[in-house]
Specification:
single chain, 357 residues, mainly beta, Immunoglobulin-like, Ferric Hydroxamate Uptake Protein, Chain A, domain 1, 3 domains, 3 helices, 26 strands
Length: 357
């Protein structure tokens, strides 16, 4: 799997995992860790009797998996990257049953049961989206927020904005006085903890600031400085608020696990633009209009935001089902147009901003 990640420091991080014959076992075991999910369930006939020896073929973004039900009619398939999968069940004496558009999320083995109707095996019965993402073996209270979700609801164009859609997540401590650096909105309170008591993981790698416990780099004077991971790269965010598994630690609050997008057996891409010009802001009442003199910090007149996103993924020719790539470019520009007291000497409108790639 070839994955390209652009960061806020205009750095390109390239990770290439080649599954070679002499190194297949360690790499495959690594891929089936905390950044994958699975499907499991039971195959039965119309009377509810289990069907042993049924062949199940699961087709997903990165290939096809074939397995057979055991004597209890049960099957389990793990190590699947997050995404949508089609599953087909066949057994002589029964009609072929096909279930499409079943979503697999990270750290969860979704339940997908089949009930085969008796009939000609040449006939196919198709159903849509039967998989239920409930993990009965985990005590964790978590929320799986996929790109399908965050692309369907209005939210800010930042990774941390997704966190607040999960239950048990609230705004953390903010600056109490002017020019004070608090944890900021990028470090929410999860499960009643402070904003600097969470653990942040991207594709199995911890990105928590080891000194302060924030999301990405944190500076005592300027607060959170960002993660270097843009929203265009995020496939899914899994937020564990209570009772998370023992393999997670170093957190009094919650566990925030992010999974980046991957290539697949089909070429796919997307283009997007998100604009919030300052001219769209409503007029704001300023402090000087109420008789106050304010010099520092200056009042905010507007905060324009411009965001472009381009992404493309697929597979390497002649290496279908084996080597995949994904790349994205997500530059953004944030501005703060501040206005000081016009009656105070040398108080012009100040326009400053940050550009992030």
């Amino acid at each position: 799997m070839l994955r390209w990640l652009g960061t806020c420091s205009a750095r390109i991080v390239c990770t290439l995992l080649l599954v070679l014959p002499f190194g297949a076992s360690p790499l495959l075991s690594q891929q089936s860790g905390t950044v994958t999910g699975g499907l499991n369930g039971t195959v039965a006939d119309s009377t509810g009797a289990v069907v042993a020896g049924a062949t199940i073929r699961v087709v997903g973004p990165q290939g096809t998996h074939t397995l057979t039900t055991d004597a209890q009619g049960h099957y389990a398939l793990n190590g699947l990257i997050p995404g949508f999968y089609d599953a087909t069940v066949e057994k002589p004496g029964f009609k072929k049953l096909k279930s499409t558009h079943n979503e697999v999320v990270v750290s969860v083995s979704s339940l997908l049961n089949f009930k085969l109707p008796v009939g000609n095996a040449e006939e196919t019965v198709e159903v849509t989206a039967q998989a239920v993402g409930i993990d009965t073996e985990s005590t964790a209270i978590d929320a799986n927020l996929t790109d399908t979700f965050y692309n369907s609801v209005p939210m800010a164009r930042s990774v941390s904005a997704i966190f607040y859609a999960a239950p048990g997540v609230a705004g953390g401590q903010v600056a109490g006085t002017p020019n004070q650096a608090g944890p900021g909105s990028s470090n929410p309170s999860i499960g009643g903890s402070t904003g600097l008591e969470n653990l942040y993981v991207v594709d199995g790698v911890t990105i928590t600031d080891q000194a302060y416990g924030s999301l990405g780099t944190f500076n005592v004077n300027h607060g959170s400085l960002g993660t270097g991971i843009n929203l265009a790269f995020i496939k899914e965010v899994d937020i564990k608020t209570y009772g998370f598994e023992p393999q997670y630690g170093k957190a009094q609050g919650g566990i925030v696990q992010m999974v980046t997008k991957s290539g697949s057996n089909s070429y796919h891409g997307a283009l997007g633009a998100y604009l919030g010009p300052g001219s769209w802001y409503a007029d704001r009442k300023q402090f000087y209009q109420f008789g106050y003199i304010q010099t520092t910090p200056s009042a905010t007149d507007s905060s324009p935001h411009y965001d472009l996103a381009a992404e493309f993924g697929g597979y390497i020719p002649h290496f279908r089902d084996k080597i995949f790539f994904f790349g994205a470019f997500n530059p953004s520009l944030d501005q703060n147009i501040n206005k000081a007291d016009p009656f105070f000497p040398y108080a012009p409108i100040v326009n400053h901003g940050t550009f992030c790639v």
